[in-house]
Amino acid sequence: MTSLPANPAMRRLGLVIDLDICVGCHACAVNCKEWNAGGHMAPLTDFDAFGEKPSGVWFNRIHTFEAGEGADGRTVHFPKSCLHCAEPDCVTVCPTGASFKRSADGIVLVNEDMCIGCKLCSWACPYGAREFDEDVGVMKKCTLCVDRIYNETLPQHERVPACVSTCPAGARHFGDLGDPTSEVSQLVAERGGYDLMPELGYKPTNKYLPPRPRQNGACGTAVTATQVEAEADLSGHPFLRWVDRMLTR
Amino acid sequence: MHPAYSVIFFTTASGAGYALLALMSLMGALGMLPAERWFGLAGFLVGLIAVTAGLLSSTYHLGRPERAWRAFSQWRSSWLSREGVLALFTYVPAGITALGWVIFQEIWLVPALVLAAACMATTVTTSMIYASLKTVRRWSNCWTTPAYLAMGLASGAAWLFLLAGIFALNDTMARPIAMVALLAAGIVKYGYWRFIDTETGVATSGSATGLDRFGKVRLLTAPHTEENYLLKEMGYRIARRHAVRLRAIAFGLAILLPLVILPLVPAPGSVLGVMLAILAVMANAAGTLAERWLFFAEARHTVTLYYGAERA
């Protein structure tokens, strides 16, 4: 049923992504691909994977943006996957009932056996979270690793989405954003976590934590060439002075 | 947005077919058309073939067309499903009205009126598939549905004028109705183009990333070096000068040329008249295809904000 759940539970599972910490290493995207290529939405078909024009299905993509100018400018690595919105038009536009939002935890999923591959859901998603699998002929998307987070055969600490478990910087957090006392909700409250494109009204569950304000003197004063030269004072090092002389000959 | 040929053909053919069936049944019900067997047969054949060919063509862009029947189930929430249900339902009054018109040479009022309403409603649902997408500002606006209706009616009315000429029907009002429909389509389409030339989008790269707090946001590195599904499907862009030229071609062929030809057509039944009417119908069809191609090619999706677009 592609109508949204009438009485959704308070529980809204999702991700909190810390843009202050993300280093743009793409490990989350790679581990997502690795897990999901054998998971609930498998396969994640690739075409020409080792050729000149590779293409394929990924649930997680890491963009890098520049924001602002000059010394106030930032380079921000920006991972983007399904935001498991509270008002997901991708679900309601589905003509077959293949797209659905779970009432128990808010996860948005696709039932591959019912999908006709009309692609309308991908048009309805403002964030580009859904990717069509040309080979299977159906739409695919992030499952929030539904086959990990409830998987009792995994040790407790591994029952988080693959992207969260692999992040070497700790920039990704997983939890219940419907519970104001949860760790992720408190993190969002503390750091001013925000929604992407709130003006569209999709009410995404996933939140982004903004880069922290710069601290005085911590950065912003670039090390200049003259400073480097000044530091290279060789007067106290007879050996280095000799090397310097030899090299400048 | 990627202009898929199957969808372009579907929306133009079914738009024309439904409009022809609606105009025929409505004018028949109002006594403006005779319950003449061969004219009725030709009209229903053209209308139903256009509609059916369009509907079949629309399944070609599906990844799993064998499951298309599932699309009738979610009419509560989905405009695409509503379109499917209404399109299927329309065959019922169409069949009954055609039966009366062709076999009994009678126009049955209730089925004819239901048919006219169902045809227009189906075209509205087609347009709402696009108009309901908040992600594409150039679709989700008050011009989209009137444009689909008006362009469909212009094509359907041109077809009706041609058929009335072939069957030498006198005093049918087919010509003034076609002229008005063409004029209305021209006005609505002009309004649509004026609107999309001034719209500023629903979101910016700043709101899409939330990084506008630092200033202007620009893409430094894309997530992938080659095109992916998102860019192929939603990142389609057309050069502005091509768009301007294509608009002129679409407008000239779909609206202006038929508007010039129609008054020149002599009394119904003449060979010259039929030839001219065929020319008007062909020009309108070609122009409408160009117009529909542009409808997709000029549309911009918010996902492009993550790939370097500043507004969408």
Automatic annotation (TrEMBL), chain A:
Residues 13-44, 73-104, 106-135 form the 4Fe-4S ferredoxin-type domain. GO terms for molecular function: 4 iron, 4 sulfur cluster binding; metal ion binding. It comes from the Bacteria. Keywords: 4Fe-4S, Iron, Iron-sulfur, Metal-binding. The keyword Lipoprotein does not apply. This is Fe-S-cluster-containing dehydrogenase component. It comes from Dongia mobilis.
TrEMBL record, chain B:
Signal peptide: none annotated. Keywords: Membrane, Transmembrane, Transmembrane helix. GO terms for biological process: anaerobic electron transport chain. It holds the Pfam family DmsC. The keyword Membrane applies. The chain crosses the membrane at residues 7-32, 38-63, 84-104, 110-133, 145-167, 173-192, 244-265, 271-290. The keyword Transmembrane helix applies. GO terms for cellular component: dimethyl sulfoxide reductase complex; plasma membrane. GO terms for molecular function: dimethyl sulfoxide reductase activity. This is DMSO reductase anchor subunit. It comes from Dongia mobilis.
